[in-house]
Description:
Blueprint: E1 3-13, E2 16-27, E3 31-35, H1 42-49, E4 57-62, E5 65-66, E6 81-84, H2 96-102, H3 109-122, H4 138-150, E7 156-160, H5 168-184, E8 189-193, H6 196-202, E9 205-210, E10 213-218, H7 220-225, H8 230-235, E11 240-243, E12 250-253, E13 259-261, E14 269-278, E15 283-289, E16 294-299, E17 309-313, E18 319-322
Parallel strand pairs: 3-8, 3-9, 6-7, 7-8
Antiparallel strand pairs: 1-2, 1-4, 4-5, 9-10, 11-12, 12-18, 13-17, 14-15, 14-17, 15-16
Helix pairs in contact: 2-4, 3-4, 4-5
Bound molecules: adenosine-5'-diphosphate and magnesium ion.
Amino acid sequence: MQKLKIHSLTKTYDGQEALASVDLDIQAGEWVGIIGESGSGKSTLLKIIGRFLDADKGEIFVDEKKLPPVSSQLLKGHEAIKLVHQEYELFPNQSVRENIAYALRFYEPEYRNQRVNELLKLTRLEDVQHRKAKLLSGGEKQRTALAHSLAEVPGLLLLDEPFAHLDPNNKQTLADAIEDLKKSHRLTCLFVTHDASEALAWADRIVILREGNIIQEGRPEEVYQYPINQYAAELTGLVNILSAENNAGQRVIRPNFIRIIKDESKACWTAVIVKIRFKGTHYEYYCRTEQGEDLLCYRSRRDREVGEKVFLTSSKKHSQLVARH
Ligand code: ADP
Ligand code: MG
C-alpha cells in the first residue's frame, strides 16, 4: 500500500457526533500518532480505517481506489490493513507460539516456524513462547497481539492504545520492540494514544484529535513547541499556562524553558517555591509568582528549598501566545 486518504469522515452514535468531518492522508512508510483525550474519537477512527465500522459520511481511498462500505463486504477488515484493538483477543488456551502461528496457518510449516521465530524475537517473547495466553501479563498479551498482526507484514498497521495498562517495564519492552519494527520492516503505522510521550517519540507526524475534530497536526517537535491552544499544549506534556498581556489569550511555556536566576534585574517573575518533587533525572520546582500565577520549572539540582524566594526568567522565543481554547 502506498497511500491512504481519508476524506470528510463523519460518524455519529445515537445522535452524538464522534467524528466530525475528518481528513487525513498517510504516505507509505509514515508513522502517524494520533493523540486525544478519552472519548475524542480515536478508536472510532481506527475502527473505520480498519474496516470494522462504516462511517456515516466520507470516503477512504487506498492507493487512489475508493473502498466500498464495510456492510457490503462478506468479511470485515481489509487484507492490507491490520488493526490491533484496544481489547485484543487471543486464544486463551493456546500458547503464545500457537497464537502467532495461527496467523500463518496457510503457509508451509517450515516457513511458518521460521517466521514465528522471527516474530518471537522481535517482540521479545521467546522466553514465554510455550505459555498459554490466559497466563500472560498485560504486556506479553499486547506483544503477542502485535506479533500476530505482523505475521504477514501489513500495508498499514493500526495500533489502538498499545501502551494502555502496561507497567513501566513492559512499556519499555514494547517500546523497544516497536523501535526495532520501525527499523526492520518498512511499515506504515497509525497509532493512537492518550499519553503523548510515546507519540512524540515515534511518530513522524502527530495529529491531535478533540471531540472528533483534528485541531492540529505536524512534526512532533513542532506540535510540542508550538501548540495551537491550551488543549494541544496540555495534551503534549507539562506546560505553564499564563494569562497574556492585555487579555490577548494565553501564554504557554514549557517548564524546561524557565530558569531560576540570581540577578533580580533580569527576572521576568519573582516567585516563592511551594513544592519540590524529585523525578530521578531532575527536580520539578513548583513556584507561585507575586501575581499569583503557578509556574513549574525543572532543575538538575536541589539547591533551593520550599518557601524560598526566587527570580525566574524565560526567553520570549520559548513562550508561545495561543488562543484560550
Ligand atoms: P476514544 O477512543 O478517543 O476514547 P471513541 O472513539 O471510543 O473515543 O469514542 C468517541 C465517542 O463515541 C465517545 O463519546 C464514546 O462514548 C462514543 N462511542 C464510541 N463507541 C460507541 C458505541 N458503540 N455506541 C455509542 N457511543 C459510542
Ligand atoms: Mg479508544
